[in-house]
Amino acid sequence: NEKVLDTLNAEVKRRKHLEEEIKQFTAAFAFRQRSLVSLRSDFDSVIDSFKAQKPISISRSPGF
């Protein structure tokens, strides 16, 4: 009976530890996701700025 309680308590501690790790992972994942979205937005802004400064001209080869 004592051994069963010890095993149960160990499993409860293990579960709480796993739940904490999941919370930390979720927070880290959300932070990374926000960072990537921000980076993408910054990248798009830089690209748009370059496009506005130097429009790409398409030169046609003779005969086309």
From TrEMBL:
Keywords: Coiled coil
Coiled coil: 1-28
Organism from which the protein derives: Solanum chacoense
Name recorded for this polypeptide: Putative ovule protein
